[in-house]
Amino acid sequence: MISVLFAVLTALSNGTxxxxxRQAARRIPDxxxxxxxxxxxxxxxxxxxxxxxxxxxxxxxxAVALATGPIALVQPIFVIELxxxxxxxxxITRTRVRGRLWAGVAAVTGxxxxxxxxxxxxxxxDGVDGETWVLALLATAAFETALIVAARATHGDAxxxxxxxxxxxxxxxxxxxxxxxxxxxxxxGVGALLTAWQLYATAVVGVGALFLLQNALQAxxxxxxxxxxxxxxxxISVCYGVTLFGEQVRTGWWLLPQLAGLALIALGxxxxxxxxxxxxxxxxxxxxxxxxxxxxxxx
Length: 299
Prior knowledge:
The protein is an all-alpha fold and 299 residues long. Helices cover 76% and strands 0% of the residues. The protein has helices spanning 2-25, 37-43, 46-68, 71-74, 81-92, 99-119, 130-152, 156-194, 197-219, 222-245, 255-273, 276-279, 283-287.
């Protein structure tokens, strides 16, 4: 229950951070994409700094969640970050959330509950040996390189989607490294944690993930970036949990309700992706007939 609670808090914090960072990133010109100067421009915006504060809150909550539960359970819960992001965007724009958006939220959360209940992920080993990490890091680096090369050859929402998936993979790797580092803390105390390379790799990969996310948000719309980020993070994290930590999920006929849950999540994401809030339209357009509040740009 502790891991689930803090995973939900992580998703809500990340959703808030995404909305705030998107507000800042959409003000940056396209020629700043994939340049370090992008950070310099963002640092001068208070809304972006508020988003970073929420990222820090999310990191603390995630560390607690991973220390108390399997990565295959904790990370998929972050799927609710997508509906949370849109609901928070509606709150910021004073947009009245109507039935279709609520239906998408219900589909995503219901599908997540069904998939997790059917999979019933359980923890495996706490730590990962060095040889396994080498193979995992090489495979991840190859995947990330392919995504970034493909992203640089495109523009707009296509670039945003590819960079969003690259950011998702980096965030999943950050979670795996963080879980391994927390295992060192449990086994040997603070001294073991401070001497573990996984702790410093977590920081480096986390900064890289943040850089990829800022570029994704700057290049494409929220509708292109957020589904790739949330679904990619969940699915890739399950792969890390199974391959690195030996976590187990149910197979056999249990795959049927798991697939049904994933189908519900996908359907909910399609509904949410078609929301005017996700497309970045004004409050009046997003709410439809009977909306309250003056039109204003969504994040």
